[in-house]
Amino acid sequence: MKVYGDYHTHTMDSDGVNTIDENIAAAKQRGLSEIGITDHAHYRVRNKKKRLENALLSKAQVLRSGKNHNIKTFYGIECNVVGVDGDIDVANDERKLYDYLVCGIHLSVQPKKFWQFFTYYLPNLFWFAMRRIGINWTPKSLVRKNTRAVINAIEKNNIDILSHPSRYFRVNVIEVAKACIARGTAMELNNKKISFRPVDFERMAAMGVKFVINSDAHKAENVGRMDRVGDFLKLCDYDPNCILNLDQPFVRPKARLLDQIVKAENDKA
């Protein structure tokens, strides 16, 4: 499946295998028009001054490699929801360093508040482990808590793309989708793993959610690879206009009022 740009890729600056230049070269070779480098926020150094210096050096490398390979490049970051109150691990004064913000939940990132380690993180870790051995269930109370955490993050922060929703910690994707519409946040179709059903995708698309297809590549050879998303979309009935980067550059969707979301839901019913 061909897309205009891939806006979620990782390099050796976090847990990727290849360099920034290698990822960008791979994007050009695959025929993409744009690529974004979005390494994980939790791999950055703790010292703020050093962290800012590293970010500026990486951003300069992204621009330089883009020019060398004749492809448009962006320097973003994939940050993390770090608690049920919706805090993330990129400060407001650092946000200006990045062209856009991808945000999600990761198993390796613990909540900022100590007590939430026991009431939020550990229960999710347990039920994630249960799913790995075939017990595909999460308590409804925990799903509600996770859903509220992600909605709070969307409402409190300037998030451009919500990465792999419900992949690690289960959420109600329909409720999260409403927050995405209201705040103008795109929801990701992640080629590593799509963690919602075709029927959920169809319902969200009908509501007015905008999606962006990303590889989440951790190897240069996977940059721009969208075959799993392509197979998923073959199972779905949807308007291709809901996907923002099929044949045009990704532009963050405009926010919509809640009553417009409710109307779309009622019209579908």
Structure description:
- Helix content is 39%, strand content 11%.
- The chain is α/β, with parallel strands linked by helices.
- The chain has one domain (5-110, 146-268): TIM Barrel, CATH 3.20.20.140.
- The strands form 2 sheets. Strands 4-5-6-7-8 form a 5-stranded parallel beta sheet, with helices on one face. Strands 1-2-3 form a 3-stranded parallel beta sheet, covered by helices on one side.
Query: How many β-strand runs?
Result: 8
Oligomer designation: single chain
Assign a percent range to the helix content: 25-40%
Shape type: globular
The assigned structural class equals: alpha/beta
Order of helical and strand elements: EHEHEEEHHEHEHEHH
Average pLDDT rating: 94
The percentage of residues in β strands lies in 5-15%
Low-pLDDT parts are: none
Q: What's the number of helices?
A: 8
Superfamily (CATH H level) name: Metal-dependent hydrolases
Query: Radius of gyration, Cα only, in angstroms?
Result: 18 Å
- CATH class equals Alpha Beta
Report, as a whole number of angstroms, the end-to-end distance: 32 Å
The figure for the number of domains is 1
Biggest sheet character: 5 strands, parallel
> Reading side by side through the largest sheet, how are the strands ordered?
4-5-6-7-8
Please write out the topology.
Layout lengths: L4 E2 L13 H10 L4 E4 L10 H22 L2 E4 L1 E4 L20 E4 L11 H17 L7 H17 L4 E2 L10 H11 L2 E5 L7 H10 L3 E4 L12 H7 L24 H11 L1
Parallel strand pairs: 1-2, 2-3, 4-5, 5-6, 6-7, 7-8
